[in-house]
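Z., the sequence and structure:
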Amino acid sequence: MGASGAAFDVTIDLEGFDPLAATPRDPDTITLAARAAGVRLDDVPPPYDEDLRALVGSRIREAIDEKVPPLIRGAVGPPEYGLIVGYTDEDRYLVRTFFDKSDKPSEIGWPDFVDADHGGPVFLDRAAPPERTVQAREGLDAAIARAAGSEGALTGWAAALRDDARWADTKHAGTAAFADHAMRVVLADKRRAAARFLRGLRSLFSTPGGDLLRAAESYGYVVEALEKIGTKPFDASVAMRFLDAGHRRGIAKALEAVLGHEKEAHDALGAARAAIRQR
């Protein structure tokens, strides 16, 4: 997540509060992540005729046997990425997604391979990873490029929570509460990854080590602030509290504190990248 820049991003759907907007799914981010992982993406979207179905099925089984399971979009539920982790003798496939109904993998068949966003497999072909210093610079550049957008997203998120009229319809409070909660969980996970990535870079770049550590600590403060608001599993009590205007304003105030930590991290990232350029 660090090398792709996803760990440093904040993406919010301020119009519809769709929690999927917070997850990294854009092509540029996915391509950078694949490059850092030492793979190339081969997107093979359905629908398939009979011959192509046989070829895709054979390739899926081969990838699983070689321990490089393909990604798949929208296999279960919304068009979020999951993994094809197994197959059966009946030409069916086992997938793991965020939307599985139990601890066991979900099972899908060819009727579930509909289009690019609903059952679209993405194969991971092994490739040579970039040098660690190149990967590190790309990650820092991606982080800095996302800084202004992330600050704007946090500002808009806090403002939306202060807009009491927007949340007057209690029928949709559960959906809104889930979206707000999910976005916090995703953001906390991103910032944990950002802090890990930056601490790892100190072994590569000694000159900006202090700035890298300062940025990592700022992201740690972001995680702490989000955990205080709430990042544990969603339940009915979370939705009920969201109905209270005072509680929403409390979340907004905490997000404004998060924004302050984000700005400190962005300043440190800029200083670190400038020091690396001067080497």
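The helical segments are 27-37, 50-65, 132-145, 147-162, 173-201, 209-229, 236-242, 245-277. The beta strands are 39-43, 71-73, 81-87, 93-96, 106-108, 120-126.

Let me know what you think.
H.
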